[in-house]
Amino acid sequence: MTLDLTAQDRRDALNLVLRGLLVLTPILLYVLWQSQLTSCGGRDFEDDAIYALKALHTGQTRFRREDWDRDGKPDYASLSELDSCGVAEVKFGEFRARQGYLFEVWRNAGPGHVWWGKASPAVLGTTGDRYFYVDREGAIYFSLVDLSLPLRTEEVGDKLALLGS
Q1: How many CB atoms lie within 10 A of CB 25?
Q2: 112 vs 4, which has greater pLDDT?
Q3: 3-state secondary structure of 108
Q4: Is 133 left (phi over 0), alpha (psi -120 to 50) or beta?
Q5: Strands 101-107 and 115-121, how do they pair?
Q6: Is the pTM of this model over 0.85?
């Protein structure tokens, strides 16, 4: 059995295939993009956020101990100060975003010199499901709800869980 297709039939078949590709290509690109959002080179975005918070703690400790801003005060740095002096292992950049998480720091120059760091998922449910916090002692906590900085003592016990416990 042979198929005798006319030139018009061949053109119609080719147009049908091309239209199918036009419909499927954006879908395939979207699927690939989503898979890139949920993992980065085999590493989870949450792992990257935890690593960055540990680096933030180390940077804050060095900034305070070594007086990197040369103001003679044992204080803590903003993210931009940490970036500009290069005291932390990681750079947070202009948008304070890194590997699917957004970072912020709250610091108090008053008694006790308290500071908190926070990592929030850039796209909740896609780049991460948990919010992470680090205190001046380097303890990393997590929560399933977004808590505003600064954290109060009662929130630490009631609303946060210590990572790894």
Answers
A1: 10
A2: 4
A3: coil
A4: beta
A5: antiparallel
A6: no
Task: Please state, in angstroms and as integers, the Cα–Cα distance from residue 163 to each residue in 42, 60, 119, 142, 153, following that order.
Answer: 21, 20, 13, 6, 17
Kindly report, residue by residue over 45-96, the tens digit of the pLDDT: 899 899 999 999 999 888 888 888 788 887 888 888 888 887 777 877 655 7
d(CA 74, CA 113): 8
Beta bridge partners of 119: 103, 132
State how far the alpha carbon of 55 is from the alpha carbons of 74, 126, 152, in Å.
19, 24, 23
Provide the pLDDT for residue 33.
Answer: 54
Answer yes or no: are the C-beta atoms of 76 and 162 closer than 8 Å: no
Give the confidence band of 42 by pLDDT, cuts at 50, 70, 90. Answer: very low
Instruction: Transcribe 74-106 into DSSP letters.
Output: -----HHHHHHHT-SSS--TTTTEETTEEEEEE
Domain coordinates in residue numbering, the chain: 7-38, 45-162
Nearest alpha-carbon partner for 143 in 153, 131, 129: 131
**Tokens 């042979």 identify what position?**
2
Give the pLDDT confidence score for residue 1 in this predicted structure. Answer: 60
